[in-house]
Amino acid sequence: IGENTENSILSGVLNGSVAEIDGIITNYKAQFPNIICVLTGGDSEFLAKRLKNSIFTHQNLVLKGLNDILNYNLEKK
Fold first, then answer.
1. How many secondary structure helices (H) and strands (E) does the chain include?
2. Tens digits of per-residue pLDDT, 47-62?
3. CA-to-CA distance for 13 and 29, rounded, in angstroms?
């Protein structure tokens, strides 16, 4: 809860985003009990700490994947 308008808005956006992500994960887990959820991006670990659901996080998954592709192609030469 914020002490002024700006902090209240920021708190609402953060809490709303966390609730939305948690809700989506809960719905998917109800449909697919063995699902593994992955949260990526720079704020993934920050958000994961606030989620009720446990998920796998990786801040730089896309960059790691691109690097793996590059290394694979370099080895094939």
1. 3, 2
2. 888 888 888 888 888 8
3. 24
